[in-house]
Design a protein that fits this description.
The structure holds 2 protein chains of 2 kinds.
Chain A: H1 7-16, H2 20-39, H3 43-59, H4 67-75, H5 79-92, H6 103-111, H7 116-129, H8 132-146, H9 151-167, H10 188-204, H11 206-212, H12 216-228, E1 236-237, E2 240-241, H13 243-257, H14 261-277, H15 283-298, H16 303-317, H17 322-335, H18 340-344, H19 347-352, H20 359-372, H21 378-391, H22 394-411, H23 415-429, H24 437-447, H25 452-465, H26 470-489, H27 502-506, E3 510-513, E4 517-520, H28 529-541, H29 547-560, H30 567-576, H31 583-597, H32 603-606, H33 621-645, H34 679-686, H35 713-716, E5 731-736, E6 739-747, E7 754-763, E8 769-777, E9 783-786, E10 801-809, E11 818-826, E12 829-837
Helix pairs in contact in A: 2-3, 3-5, 4-5, 5-7, 6-7, 6-8, 7-9, 8-9, 9-10, 10-11, 10-13, 12-13, 12-14, 13-14, 13-15, 14-15, 14-16, 15-16, 15-17, 16-17, 17-20, 21-22, 21-23, 22-23, 23-25, 24-26, 25-26, 26-28, 26-29, 28-29, 29-30, 29-31, 30-31
Chain B: E1 3-8, E2 13-18, H1 24-39, E3 48-51, E4 54-61, E5 64-70, H2 76-94, H3 99-104, H4 106-116, E6 117-118, E7 121-122, H5 127-151
Classes of the chains: A alpha+beta, B alpha+beta.
């Protein structure tokens, strides 16, 4: 068998491959050769073969069949073998393979080898990839080596111990005695690794932490020596003596001084010294300063020191090196909560960083800017932030927009400024704005009563420019629906908004939109109703509009029916969408149609202006969702409260029928004076119409905002007369002299306080009953509405019937009782009769 | 430090050292992803970036990218110095190191790295000390090889 080719040879050969396929072929060939060589148990060339295998592994090819071979190499006596063997073990093996445990014995032997370099190899391997089992077995050996006087081994043992502790934390105690005089070493390698070990132990155990606090003076001394000592060629880096050790000591001091007054006291001086004396011209110096700043901020340092730290960070911000700027911004972000004022001083520099080219720096600068916004600097900051919003990457826009909203919410100097800012965000980054900002904005706008006209005009203008940004369009159409009358009456100042960029103000506002009509709207000249409706209808048909937006615009159009005079046009639009493919639109349109037809008298009340909404705490998108959920339930609670507090004493009173108030007046009284303050009340009333959560989206959506919120989500999917009604049996209320009156019941599911009773009057006699009038009265705790009868002639011989709808509101769920009075003319003579109806089925009122 | 990678501008991996136990499949995925991210960076951008839950510190030396993944509490600036020290060691050892040296002598590069770092931490802050140790180990290797030949 010819000797396997050398490693370098193989590498050279593989590199000559011109295609991936060629390379694969070579590799496969070589792998086959190696495999057969392994099978032959060839000791001489095993090392070479494994080395080649490792190379191929790095190229990405499988090399698992070499794992056992690595173990064999480790067991060999030759140093070369061991070197490659251990390397192979570190590259090919890890704790997932069972094979690795076979290494344990070899490592144990090698840890006690006579040659320190072999010991070093095994320590290294254990310290890099030792599994918990291995660590448990070998911890004792490591601990022994930690106490040796050989600094070469001691430093490696220390880092190996770190790994052992990471894998098996319980073994930490074991290493405690060995740490006793680690810090008295002169050797920097040992010092460095010892500090790492101490750091690891302190981070993991509070007991260790308190135990090691006594080392603070010693650490301070070491650090001082490093700074004060002269040039030491061995450890010098750009004029600084052993920066790596300095950084590690500073980090350990940070952990030891945190929360402890005495320790912090002891370090104050040295920290000040490091902060002032370190050279800042090279990265090394800045690295040390950075670590110092982190330490100062974390321990209980005196305020002078803290200010010094922040100033260092401020200087970093001005550094040419962007790495340093990045690091400064990150640190400032951490300290802005605690040392707000000090950081404020550097605000302008931070804001400048918004214009940096680097994405990470920009992001940090943005976060920091938001943290620094307060009542005093809001105007200036907002200008910068809005400018940033215009020009930043799309990934930032959502976060930036949310941040701006939050800041504006907290610190807006005036309502108008707030609305202008919001508008600006919507127009520049409208498509990136989070969905839940739409209801927040709507609430904001509603609550700024004096700004309604101004707002709606600006929103209208914005719509004319651009209908592609959905959140903007949604808010705009909502506002137009609400305040369309203000828009059309033209009552508003025409000043340009205050908070605006000069460029933005000069944007020409001449646009074409569907149909080639131009609207010059630099000033709010009289906008006609038709124009407004054109815009809204345009939204409905545009394929830029999402279904949600379409729903908003349809509702807005509907609302305008009470504010505009062109009701017919609106009726037409609404009826067209009654057959829309979009189920949502269709449902709305059908319901609005119903509103026009059957319930026209309710329309004005229903579509009245929204009252001021309850302000929910705005802490952020998720908080908003939660608090809205709460307000939702409180609204529902208050709805039920009045009915409970009503006196229950009138249960048995019956009205005096003859007084002529047979028909208790109509439902208008139950329409609350704030009609849509909580869609809930409305729904209670009109439950059986299965109107959705009001024509307007409510302020308290407890469902995800991907659809317009419905307070009663279930309702929208129910037919107008629900299935439950089928369960209530009809009853015969009256049957005398050939006149039979039957009651059939419907009750709407979500508002079971309302029972809808349809009476069917039939006449079994041979003569018609003409001038038929049905009247009913209910006890005071109920309310009754009697709708018009189908006719007032009950045809003879059951040829037909008169139907009439009674709606009974029974909030206290008391037993339904009714007195009815019938008058009709039969065979020429007037007939009158009174009756009591008591046999209502329980399902009709329970 | 969680891991260190060396790769060329063309996306070829030259060295990979993992200081945490990771599955082979995950390693490959992470390497691929990270290479993509780092190679896409423009020259003027800063040497730090966030990736997954780690901080990545990278620096380009000639045709090679040296890329380290450190944890949240680690000092990025000093990591840059660590990378630089490693390059200096390679340079001293190979004499004006270039990518080819690392390609053809990858195992030696690993040996140097393992003498310099363990578990992601520096073993010795003295350049001289590390180089001396490597030198001695190489001598030991020579001796054992010579012995073998003598015995053969």
């Amino acid at each position: 068998m010819p000797a396997p080719i050398r490693l370098r040879e193989l590498i050279r050969t593989i590199r000559t491959a011109r295609t991936q396929a060629e390379e694969r072929e070579m590799i496969q060939k070589e792998c086959a050769a190696i495999r057969s060589s392994f099978r032959e148990e060839d000791n001489t060339y095993r090392c070479r073969n494994v080395a080649k295998l490792l190379y191929m592994h790095m190229l990405g090819y499988p090399a698992h069949f070499g794992q056992l071979e690595c173990l064999k190499l480790i067991a060999s006596q030759k140093f070369t073998d061991k070197r490659i063997g251990y390397l192979g073990a570190m590259l090919l093996l890890d704790e997932r393979q069972d094979v690795h445990l076979l290494m344990t014995n070899c490592i144990k032997n090698d840890l006690n080898h006579s040659t320190q370099y072999v010991q070093g190899l095994s320590l290294c391997t254990l310290g890099c990839m030792g599994s918990s089992e291995m660590c448990r077995d070998l911890a004792g050996e490591v601990e022994k080596l930690l106490k040796t006087s050989n600094s070469y081994l001691r430093k490696k043992a220390a880092l190996c111990a770190v790994h052992v502790i990471r894998k098996v934390p319980e073994l930490m105690e074991m290493f405690l005695p060995a740490t006793k005089n680690l810090l008295s070493e002169k050797n920097h390698g040992v010092l460095h690794t010892s500090v790492v070990l101490l750091t690891e132990m302190c981070e993991r155990s509070p007991d260790m932490l308190s135990h090691f606090r006594k080392l603070v003076p010693q650490l301070v001394r070491i650090l001082k020596n490093l700074i004060m000592s002269g040039y030491s060629p061995e450890h010098d880096v750009s004029g600084i003596s052993d920066p790596f050790l300095q950084v590690r000591i500073l980090r350990l001091l940070r952990i030891l001084g945190k929360g402890d007054d005495d320790s912090s006291e002891a370090m104050n001086d040295i920290l000040a010294q490091v902060a002032t004396n370190t050279e800042t011209s090279k990265n090394v110096g800045n690295a040390i300063l950075y670590e110092t700043v982190l330490t100062i901020m974390d321990i209980k340092s005196e305020s002078g020191l803290r200010v010094l730290a922040i100033n260092i960070l401020g200087r970093f911000l001005l550094n040419n090196d962007k790495n340093i700027r990045y690091v400064a911004l990150t640190s400032l972000l951490k300290t802005v909560q605690t040392d707000h004022n000090a950081v404020q001083r550097h605000r302008s520099t931070i804001v400048d960083c918004l214009k940096d080219l680097d994405v990470s720096i920009k992001r940090r600068a943005m976060e920091l800017s938001f943290a620094l916004v307060n009542g005093n600097n809001i105007r200036g900051m907002m200008k910068e932030l809005l400018y940033f919003l215009d020009s930043c990457d799309p990934d930032f826009k959502a976060d930036c927009a949310s941040g701006i909203f939050l800041a504006a919410e907290k610190y807006a100097p005036s309502k108008r400024w707030h609305i202008d800012t919001v508008m600006r965000v919507l127009t520049t980054a409208g498509s990136y704005v989070r969905d839940d900002s739409v209801p927040n904005l709507i609430q904001l706008i509603t609550n700024s009563v004096e700004m309604h006209a101004y707002t709606v005009q600006r929103l209208y203008k914005a719509l004319l420019d651009d209908i592609s940004q959905q959140p903007l369009v949604q808010v705009a159409s909502w506002c137009i629906g609400e305040y369309g009358d203000l828009l059309v009456s033209g009552q508003c100042e025409e000043e340009e908004p205050i908070q605006v960029d000069a460029l933005y103000a000069l944007r020409p506002l001449i646009h074409n939109y569907f149909g080639g009509r131009t609207i010059v709207s630099d000033f709010m000249s009289q906008v006609s109703e038709d124009e407004v409706l054109d815009v809204l209808e345009g939204l409905l048909v545009s394929n830029l509009s999402t279904p949600v937006t379409r729903a908003y615009s349809l509702t807005a159009i509907m609302k305008l029916s009470t504010r505009f005079s062109s009701v017919n046009r609106i009726k037409k639009v609404v009826s067209i969408y009654g057959s829309s493919i979009d189920v949502e639109l269709q449902q709305r349109a059908v319901e609005y149609n119903a509103l026009f037809k059957k319930y026209d008298h309710m329309r004005p009340a229903l579509l009245e202006r929204m009252p001021i909404m309850e302000k929910t705490a705005t802490n952020g998108p998720t908080d908003i969702a939660q608090t809205n959920g709460e307000t939702d339930s409180t609204i529902l609670d208050t709805k039920h409260l009045p009915s409970i507090t009503q006196p229950a004493s009138q249960a048995n009173d019956l009205l005096d029928l003859l007084g002529g108030n047979d028909v208790v007046p109509v439902i208008q009284t139950t329409v609350p004076t704030k009609p849509a303050s909580a869609g809930g009340e409305l729904l209670d009333l009109l439950g059986d119409l299965s109107l959705t959560g009001g024509p307007t989206p409510t302020p308290a959506p407890s469902v995800p905002m991907s659809q317009p919120p419905f307070l009663l989500d279930g309702l929208s999917s129910q037919p107008i007369f629900n299935d439950i009604a089928a369960g209530i049996p009809p009853m015969t209320a009256y049957n005398k002299n050939g006149l039979k009156i039957e009651f059939t019941f419907e009750r709407s599911n979500p508002s079971p306080n309302i029972a809808v009773i349809t009476i069917h009057a039939t006449n079994s006699t041979e003569a018609d009953m003409t001038e038929f009038v049905f009247q009913a009265a209910v006890p005071k705790t109920f309310q009754l509405q009697l709708l018009s009868p189908s006719s007032n002639v009950v045809p003879a011989l059951n040829q037909g019937s008169v139907t009439q709808v009674i709606r009974v509101l029974n909030p206290q769920k008391q037993q339904l009782r009714m007195r009815i009075k019938l008058t009709y003319t039969h065979k020429g003579s007037p007939v009158q009769d009174l009756a009591e109806v008591n046999n209502f089925p329980p399902q009709s009122w329970q | 430090m969680r891991f260190m990678l060396l790769f060329s501008r063309q996306g070829k991996l030259r060295l990979q050292k993992w200081y945490t136990a990771t599955a082979e499949r995950d390693k490959k995925k992470m390497v691929r992803e990270l290479m993509q991210v780092v190679l896409a960076r423009k020259p003027k951008m800063c040497s730090f970036l966030e990736w997954r839950d780690l901080k990545i510190v990278y620096k380009r030396y000639a045709s090679l990218y040296f890329c380290c993944a450190v944890e949240e509490q680690d000092n990025e600036l000093i990591t840059l110095e660590v990378i630089h020290r490693f390059v200096e060691l390679l340079d001293k050892y190979f004499g004006s190191v270039c990518e080819l040296d690392i390609i053809f002598n990858f195992e030696k590069a690993y040996f140097i790295l393992d003498e310099f770092l363990m578990g992601g931490e520096i073993q010795d802050t003295s350049k001289k000390s590390v180089l001396k140790a490597i030198e001695q180990a190489d001598l030991l290797q020579e001796v054992s090889l010579n012995l073998k030949h003598k015995m053969a």
